[in-house]
């Protein structure tokens, strides 16, 4: 009787020891409204809602927000019009998380070789005059990679974490490039005039 009872208790104990906490999404939330806005000497800021083309292995479009929408959130939160002429156009030229099957990951006893995720983001800001002639531009990119399991839940959590981390990089690089390339169009200092009542619009393209 004692021997049988030991056999019944042993699997439960092993199960408790082998359990691992579920993976958690890492990285800062995709929101930048808490940061100081980049004030531009333009009358309007346009955020294009066009999605760049991506390959069949792109899982960035399956997330919420999608990779492209995450970049647009940055544009909406960070940019503001503080001028009376010219216009700024913010666009997403690359936003994807590509997955590639790993080969031999985990050793000979692993049934799941896992996947590699590559997040690639690029944002662009153009300053245009009233005739849509370009007066200047700034462009920023960010790339990050990560390996993950092939299961749906693990892949999604890894992809969301990767996007958050890449967006942190992109936000930092975007401000640096804007200040470097478009400094004459930045309005800085406490004496700056308030922005016009309507300073942002969405632009759709077929």
Topology, please?
Blueprint: H1 2-18, E1 38-40, E2 44-48, H2 67-78, E3 79-81, E4 87-101, E5 115-128, E6 134-148, H3 152-181, E7 200-203
Parallel strand pairs: 1-3, 2-4, 2-7
Antiparallel strand pairs: 4-5, 5-6
Helix pairs in contact: 2-3
Report on this model:
About 30% of the residues lie in helices and about 30% in strands. Mean pLDDT is about 85; it is low at about 1-20 and about 105-110. The protein contains 3 helices and 7 strands; from the N terminus they run αββαββββαβ. It is elongated, with a radius of gyration of 23 Å. The strands form 2 sheets. It has a 5-stranded mixed sheet with strand order 6-5-4-2-7. It starts with a helix and ends with a strand. α2 packs parallel to α3 (about 150-180). It has one domain (about 25-105, about 110-205): 2-Layer Sandwich (Double Stranded RNA Binding Domain), CATH 3.30.160. The protein is α/β, with parallel strands linked by helices and about 210 residues long. The chain has helices at about 1-20, 65-80, 150-180; strands at about 40, 45-50, 80, 85-100, 115-130, 135-150, 200-205.
Tell me how many strands there are: 7
Shape field: elongated
The CATH topology annotation reads as Double Stranded RNA Binding Domain
Oligomeric composition of the shown chains: single chain
- What do the pLDDT scores average to? 83
Distance between the first and last residues' Cα: 76 Å
Q: How is the biggest beta sheet arranged?
A: 5 strands, mixed
**Into which percentage range does the β-strand content fall?**
25-35%
Detail the poorly predicted runs: 1-18, 105-110
What is the gyration radius calculated from CA atoms?
23 Å
CATH class: Alpha Beta
By CATH, the architecture is named 2-Layer Sandwich
Q: Which strands sit side by side, in order, in the main sheet? A: 6-5-4-2-7
Helix-strand sequence? HEEHEEEEHE
Which percent bin holds the helix content? Answer: 25-40%
The tally of structural domains comes to 1
Number of helices: 3
Structural category is alpha/beta
């Amino acid at each position: 009787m004692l021997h049988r009872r030991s056999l019944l208790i042993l699997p439960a104990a092993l199960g408790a020891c082998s359990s691992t906490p579920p993976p958690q999404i890492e990285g800062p939330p995709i929101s930048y409204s808490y940061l100081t806005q980049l004030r531009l000497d333009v009358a309007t800021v346009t955020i294009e809602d066009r999605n760049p083309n991506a390959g069949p292995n792109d899982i960035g479009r399956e997330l919420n927000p999608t990779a492209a929408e995450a970049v647009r959130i940055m544009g909406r939160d960070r940019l503001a019009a503080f001028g009376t002429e010219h216009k700024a156009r913010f666009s997403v030229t690359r936003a994807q998380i590509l997955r590639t099957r790993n080969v031999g990951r985990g050793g000979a006893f692993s049934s799941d070789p896992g996947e590699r995720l590559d997040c690639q983001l690029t944002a662009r800001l153009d300053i245009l005059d009233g005739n849509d002639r370009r007066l200047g531009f700034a462009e920023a990119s960010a790339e990050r990679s990560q390996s993950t399991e092939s299961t749906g839940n693990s892949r999604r959590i890894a992809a969301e974490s990767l996007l958050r981390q890449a967006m942190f990089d992109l936000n930092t690089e975007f401000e640096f490039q804007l200040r470097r390339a478009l400094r004459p169009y930045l309005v800085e200092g406490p004496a700056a005039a308030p922005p016009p009542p309507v300073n942002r619009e969405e632009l759709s393209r077929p």
